[in-house]
Amino acid sequence: MPEAQLELLRSKFGLDTREMACRNLEGCEHCRRKGLFTRAGKVAAGAKGQTLAMEIYRPTPEFLDRVLERDWRGAEKVWRNERRTGFDDPDMTGKTIYEHALYKASQGIIDPRFIDESMRTFESYRVFPDYAGAMPS
Predict the structure, then answer these.
(1) Domain containing residue 100
(2) Is residue 91 part of a domain?
(3) How many percent of the chain have pLDDT more than 90?
C-alpha cells in the first residue's frame, strides 16, 4: 500500500497500521490453495478464507423519534454518535459495516485495499464523532 494511504488510515481513522496485511496474489505457504485455480488458470492464492463485516442496530427511542419525523440524517447521527470506541476496537456499537471492515483490516484479517476499492475510498468516507464528540486520532 502506498505510504500516503497508510498515513490516512492512521490520521483519519486512528488506526495502527503495523498489523495490517495486503493480499499477495502470488500467495505464500499460508494461503496458497493447493488444487484450487482461478479463472485464469493460476493457483488461487493470497487469501486464507472469508470473513464477515456487518452492522446491526438496536433502535433507541430517540432514533425511532427521528424516523417517525422522517429525519433520516438525524436518525443516522443518533446511531453513529453511540460509538464509544476507536475503529481498532472490537466493540461495534454505533459503527457501520465500513468501520467493522476497518477493524478487521487493523487486525490483519482483511486487506485494507478491499475497503478502499470495493466499499468507499478512505478519502471520501465521512467519520462521525463518537458519543463524547471526539474524532479518532
Answers:
(1) 3-119
(2) yes
(3) 68
Q: Give the pLDDT confidence score for residue 35 in this predicted structure.
A: 65
How many domains does the chain divide into? Answer: 1
- 46 pLDDT higher than 80: no
Residue 125 resides in a domain: no
Q: Compare 98 and 35 and report the one with higher pLDDT.
A: 98
In a domain, 37, yes or no: yes
To which residue does cell 481498532 refer? 88
The Cα 65–Cα 29 span in angstroms is: 53
Pairwise CA distance, residues 9 & 12, whole Å: 6
74 domain residue, yes or no: yes
Q: What gap in Å lies between CA 137 and CA 120, rounded to an integer? A: 20
Quick count: other Cβ atoms within 10 Å of Cβ 130?
Answer: 19
pLDDT digits (tens, 9 = 90+) for 114-125: 999 999 999 999
113 — phi, psi (to 5°)? -65, -30
Distance CA 59, CA 73 (A): 15
Which residues, other chains included, contact 12 with Cβ-Cβ below 8 Å and sequence gap of 6+? Answer: 122, 125, 127, 136
